[in-house]
Amino acid sequence: MCHCRAVSDRSIRASIREGASTLEAVSDRTGAAQCCGGCEPMVAEILEDELEARTEPSSPKLTTLRPLRLLKDPRAA
Ligand code: FES
Q: How confident is the model over 1-24, as a mean pLDDT?
């Protein structure tokens, strides 16, 4: 990904998953985009992808709760 600093896309994704949420934060954590800047558009693209993935629900939501029907105790009648 970043040839100048030998930073892989995997490292960039990991930094985002660990809390980096801006290009500057990713750059500070990984060293990417701190030399020629040629990788910056790709780093920004990965950042956008990861942040979008973070906001998508990972599992279906429980939208409806149904009341429980309690069985009558035959001895109560
Ligand atoms: S390729 Fe990343 S700073 Fe040059």
A: 96
38 touches ligand 1 (CB under 6 Å):
yes
More confident residue, 63 or 4: 4
Domain extent listing, the chain: 9-55
Give 7 Cα–ligand 1 centroid separation in angstroms.
9
Asked whether 20 lines ligand 1 (CB < 6 A), one says no
What does the alpha-carbon distance between residue 61 and residue 26 come to, in Å, rounded to a whole number?
Answer: 31
Please say whether the beta carbons of 13 and 37 come within 8 A: no
Into which CATH architecture does domain 9-55 fall?
A: Orthogonal Bundle (1.10)
